[in-house]
Every structure is written in C-alpha cells, then in structure tokens.
Design goal:
The protein is of the alpha+beta class and 120 residues long. 20% of the residues lie in helices and 29% in strands. A five-stranded mixed sheet has the order 1-2-3-4-5. A hairpin with a 3-residue loop joins strand 3 and strand 4. The longest helix is centred in the middle third of the chain and has 15 residues. 28% of the residues are buried.
Length: 120
C-alpha cells in the first residue's frame, strides 16, 4: 500500500454548529475536533482532540488556527479554557487580541508587546 505525504493530502477545518465543535479533516477522514460553547460575546474553547491515528502531523495546530480564524472572521471573542488552544495562542501572539484584555490574566496570557513573542 502506498501512502501519500501530508503535502499531497488535503486538510480542511469546518464548523459543526449542531455538535458545537470545529473539525479537522485529512482528505475525507475526520482527524480531530475542538469542542466549544458559544456565548453572546464569543466562543469558549473547551477541549481539543486529535485521533491517535493522525497524531504527530501538526493537525492540532491546523485545527486551532482554523477555529481562531473563524472566530476572528465572525468578530467573536475567544476564551481558551482548553490548554492546547491556550498554548497555541501563547506561541502565536497574533491571536492574542481575540482574548479580551480583561480576561487574559485568567488564562496566563500576556498582553501584546509584553516580550512573550519572538521577532519573525
């Protein structure tokens, strides 16, 4: 059996509002999801899970980036209760503005320009 590399496979992130989650697919296979709770102001990300069959391929990051981009496009605030989402925001401060400034300390997130990011 010949396997294709991830560069040849298609990834996509979609929202399933009925299930309250964002999902990442590799080709047609569901590879993982982020559970969320929607509030009037935004999205509370609760739990991220990648199927072990798809581990180590960076799909968790693809999923979180897609979910955060969707939140930004919808003008929604983000509350990163999920540790994986929180770490992603710590490592990618371009998403910090999605977390309300008065809630960042609760998630141990610094403010922009706090020196937590390295230059590009």
């Amino acid at each position: 059996m010949k396997e294709r590399s991830m560069q040849q496979q298609q990834t996509r992130v979609t929202e399933d509002p009925q299930a309250h989650r964002f999902e990442v697919f590799l080709d047609d296979d569901l590879a993982g999801f982020i559970d969320y709770k929607r509030t009037a102001a935004g999205l509370s990300f609760l739990h991220t899970e990648i199927d072990p069959r798809f581990g180590g391929r960076g799909l968790g990051s693809v999923l979180v980036r897609g979910a955060l981009d969707a939140a930004r496009a919808q003008g929604l605030d983000v509350l990163p209760f999920c540790p994986f989402v929180r770490r992603y925001i710590q490592r990618h401060p371009e998403y910090l503005d999605l977390v309300p400034a008065d809630r960042r300390a609760r998630f141990e997130l610094g403010s922009e320009g706090s020196g937590t990011a390295s230059p590009a």
